[in-house]
Amino acid sequence: MKKPPIGLYAIFFMPWLLAELFGGFYILSYLIAWLGSFFIFYLTLTGKIKELPDDRKVSEQLMRPIFLVQIVFAGYMCCTSFFYFLDVLGYQDFHKNPILTLVDQNRLMLTAQCQRYYCLAHASFVTGVLLFMKYPNKQRYHIDADKIANLLLITALISLPVSIACYLVPGLSQFYFQLGSLSFIAGTLALAYAIPLKKMANTIICLILYFFNFYQALISGYKEPIIISVLVLGIFLYPNYKKVVTYFLMPFLLCLFMLLPTYNRVFRENSWTETTDQDEARSLAIDAVLNSKKDKLNGQDDSNWEFYAFRLSEIDMFTIFAKSTPAHIGYYGLKLLEQSFTAIIPRAFWPSKPSTEDLVMERVYDAGVVYRGSSVSAKPAFVVDAYLSGGPFGIVVCLLIYGATAQLLSIQAEKLFGGYVLGTALIFSGLFQILWRGLSFEFLINSVFWSYITMLVIFKIFKTYNVLEEV
Question: Any bridge partners for residue 142, and if so which?
């Protein structure tokens, strides 16, 4: 893989710089920064700046950081704010609100400012990824290709009950999420292997696992697990079933984006009370989705605009933090990192350890995002914590490290587990799924640290039982 001059990566920062030059023209500045992320996607996903890995076809390496992590993390961070931007300009359901004739210029200014920060974060993230993206790797171990399909199924079947056991043991709840995610990825990947190999028993078991996970996503009350369930299945099936994924799963994914707001709203309204169980709430939510068009014809308001403008994107929260810091609250410096490393220590060794949730929410209260005593949880995203730590400089440093970490973890997993399938597609995507979204410093650093320990444990198990053989 040809290594480009480091100075060439400066082109990623040109949209941010251009948006800053037009910072006094809020609408234009926002649009430059927003479109700048699409420009970065174009440069990276087409290999214009650095060649894409050529050890596999593009369709067979989509779980690597330059593809999936960037698309989900940066796409969610940078591209979903457009609905909020339209709302600021007085639009609702893409129609100008006749009541709002004046635009809040301060709100518009903060929106453009935060979008510029998003563009800067995107540029820094991909720079971190590309600086360390080097494939193919020299592998220390390998596994026979004939064993992979059964190994994936066994991994899915074992990690699921182990994750449930971790949930029941005090102090091990975080491993419940890691191993549960690993089980889902392993089962979905096993399904994608079993179908073309025509392994009927494997296919049936994997389908049961997949629909079990999909059902759990439906009753979680959150949109991300449902979307990820379909997205991951499509990525794994795409190399062998391009037409099916393109003409069926992708439209289905688009429909989910349109229908999930109504489903989630109705489900939460009913399930998060003591009067309705989850199954009944799910049925009511599905009925609401199916009858939404009928309700509109009858003149009932079933708009999802509030979801698209305020919940699909986190820019509204970001503007509140940007307004208060550093004007009223100084930058945190290394304080958030210190709290993050404190969070890594198991409570079994430190019974009086401060609650991570309380530590994170303290800066949320200080900024006025929510009021103290409120039952609402509003944890800041990774880019917000990067900004709170040191402004634009903090964003550049933290997002460079973020991108580099994701890439190095993927490479390490491929070295240990004999290549892309077990390394990146299974272990990296299963254990480090938190990198797809990027939460607060304390939660992300804690999860990545213990996921790395889990990866080493799984590697030791595979090696002990001769699943992996030295090259």
Answer: 469
Of 156, 147, 237, 207, give the one whose Cα is nearest residue 426. Answer: 156
Q: Please say if the pLDDT value at position 293 is more than 70.
A: no
Q: State how far the Cα of 427 lies from the Cα of 160, in Å rounded to an integer.
A: 15
Helix and strand totals (H; E) in the chain: 20, 4
Q: Does the pLDDT value for residue 431 go beyond 50?
A: yes
Cβ atoms 101, 95 nearer than 8 A: no
Q: Is 144 in contact with 124 (CB distance < 8 Å)?
A: no
Q: Above 50 in pLDDT, residue 219? A: yes
Domain segments of the chain: what residues?
A: 147-308
Q: Is the pLDDT of residue 137 over 70?
A: yes
Q: Is the pLDDT of residue 299 over 50?
A: no
Is-cis flag, bond preceding 392, omega within 30? no
Give the residue among 202, 170, 169, 168 at the shortest CA–CA distance from 186. 202
Among 121, 128, 126, residue whose Cα is nearest residue 43: 126
pLDDT grade for 107, boundaries at 50, 70 and 90: very high
Confidence grade of residue 297 (pLDDT, cut at 50, 70, 90): very low
Q: Let me know: does 134 contact 408? Beta carbons within 8 Å.
A: no
Residues near 460 by Cβ (< 8 Å), separated by ≥ 6? none
Distance between CA atoms of 158 and 151, rounded to whole angstroms? 10
Question: Cα–Cα distance between 178 and 271 in angstroms, integer?
Answer: 25
pTM (two decimals)? 0.92
* Segment (H or E) for 298: none
What is d(CA 392, CA 387) in angstroms, rounded to the nearest whole number?
Answer: 6
Give the per-residue SS3 of 203-224.
HHHHHHHHHHHHHHHHCCCCHH
Q: Which helix (H) or strand (E) holds 470?
A: strand 469-470
